[in-house]
Amino acid sequence: xxxxxxxxxxFLVRSRIFLxxxxxxxxxxxxxxxxxxxxxxxxxxxxxxxKEHVRQQWVSIDDMNAHSAAHYGTYVFKPSxxxxxxxxxxxxxxxxxxxxxxHVQNEITHSEASQMQSISRxxxxxxxxxxxxIVPLLLVFLAFNSVSNEKQSGRFKLLVLQGAKPLQIILxxxxxxxxxxxxxxxxxxxxxxxxxxxxxxxEILTRTLLFFVSYALYYFIISGLTVFFxxxxxxxxxxxxAMLGIxxxxxxxxPNILMSSxxxxxxxxxxxxxxxxxxxxxxxxxxxxxxxxxRSEALKQKVLKEYKVDKISDLPINFSGIRLQADEEYxxxxxxxxxxxxxxxxxxxxxxxxxxxxxxPFISLQNTSMGFMASDNLHHxxxxxxxxxxxxVFIKMLNDKYTHxxxxxxxxxxxxxxxxxxxxxxxxxxxxxxxxxxxxxxDLSLLIFWSLLVIVLIIFGTKKIQIV
Amino acid sequence: MMQIQILFLFLHLSCINRYLAMIxxxxxxxxxxxxxxxxxxxxxxxxxxxxxxxxxNGAGKSTTINxxxxxxSPDAGKVTINDIDTSKNASETRKLIGYIPExxxxxxxxTGTENLDYxxxxxxxxxxxxxxxxYLITCGLAKDAHHKKVSGYSKGxxxxxGIAIAYAKKAKVYLLDEPASGLDPLASNELSELLKKLASxxxxxxxxxxxxxxxxxxxxxxxxxxxxxxxxxxxxxxVSANELETLYxxxxxx
Lengths: 468, 254
Description:
Chain A is mostly helical. Chain A has one domain. Chain A is 72% helix and 3% strand. In chain A, 35% of the residues are buried. The model of chain A has no long low-confidence stretch (mean pLDDT 86). The longest helix of chain B is centred in the first third of the chain and has 19 residues. Chain B is built from nine helices and ten strands. Chain B has a domain of 158 residues: P-loop containing nucleotide triphosphate hydrolases (Rossmann fold, 3-Layer(aba) Sandwich), CATH 3.40.50.300. The radius of gyration of chain B is 19 Å and the shape is globular. Chain B starts with a helix and ends with a helix. Chain B is of the alpha/beta class.
């Protein structure tokens, strides 16, 4: 096999057209890596600057009513991810700024796609775009006549006569073409590694390795299928047409069809439906700003009884703070119910799409690519959850402060600068690969399944291949 | 008693003949989608013998060669090389065969030496550069062409490399399918001399061709195939080129 692989590579190395295309493509790939890295660095810098600015605003508050501060709120920024310079996934459309404030769970805003039309229309030039769409096409063009050409020229007979088995020839040609894709992938990851050398961690390396494995498996599927078709059909055009058809179905039609079907099977409520449902449930709870509210009155009686006093003014604390926190906690339970339901629906959608990998390995590749590069919806949902958890801690601190800062003749009831400094800033805890891996085992397994299927197809299909 | 002696002598000669025959085609028929390509063909070719198969397009020459190569199995009958059935043990018989098709399509991006080296390595043979060049020279390829890419070779030069591949493999049997087709007279003559040399070294050669004169010149025996049937076998010594042409045309026209 090695002799045949070596000979195939000699052909590639000595072909000026191939070298020209390779050099041009590598240049585009390099450009995409540099651009991706530049954008990520720039985004990280903007993120750090904005984060620092917002924090400075917060810690500069000298004297403010804690509840006013809860309305004043703060902003959290979705940190740019070093890995997303390879695959941006959903990041460019999900937004990256979220306002954290009392009473309300805001939606994330300021997505790149919403601000740059070109991104929403064409996406960004990221290595994943080239690695997912263009490299497989290159592999198809390299392989579509690899065996049919040998058969038409009569060399296939000569190769078999010299002792090479048809299976050996087809597998060797598959490996030769596959190696080209793997080399491009290795080259890109190598350049990426050099550019991000200082920030490389074992977590990033593990994720990159899994990213590499996913792509290597997909390239094997594409190479193997193309070489097999080339061996099966004497007519190279037929093999090329078949593979281009498969490429179009796998990369363009099926992902859209599968996504639409998943959305239809597990529909998310529309924004207006969702907001109306939230509002309806929210109205059943305490209104933090309305002392005349029935439920507020019940809470008041409970607190008065607890402190064994008859009037709010006799309380050693600020009852408004307790009412606001009760309102907040009720709001949290409403959020948990509705967003929990949405998360369950999204999970079902994701699982349905993952199963699409049975008929379309490209879906599995896209999932693993985004997943291992931490730019999938799962990571985004995790970010939103962390922000909400932070918001709860943040607002509770402010409400507690408000509760225990009763206005007196000596004290205006406001919180001082030391308090605002004591409120922790939001720190995003990146999801570890061990937590993510289980979500993508199915996709990886399907890629392995497809690779094995291609090997089986080659082994059994080769027996039926006519040499003359 | 005399009859028994004659019978033993006949059986003995038959055994010797079988022993000497490197290629044996016995009662072989082959059809494709109901069309008979080879019809009850019987043919023996001895060691050191060159047999020419003459016939028009579609006469069954290439089908016969493909059965000898083990790429096709006969529907009936048996094809053996060195007493090994080609359809049952093709990998063994292929070790003995050198095959030179009408167009020897080598790898155009490799030089003559590199092509020879590659095909030898596939056959499990490793030769030094000098040995490879010696094979090419033996097969008539001029030294200055050895390190030029095959894309610049003429058809005759490629044929020589093709023969060198078979020669370096130490093939016992050479199967040539229209080898002289499209060659200039000089290259064709060189090919004839080379085949005679190989036969003199003990190679068994089957050459399918349209070229009556070349076949008459090179081959020891000639068979004429028509619609898959071997209509005539003769020794080339017994017939002149013109007589052979007349005979061939008679068979083809009837």
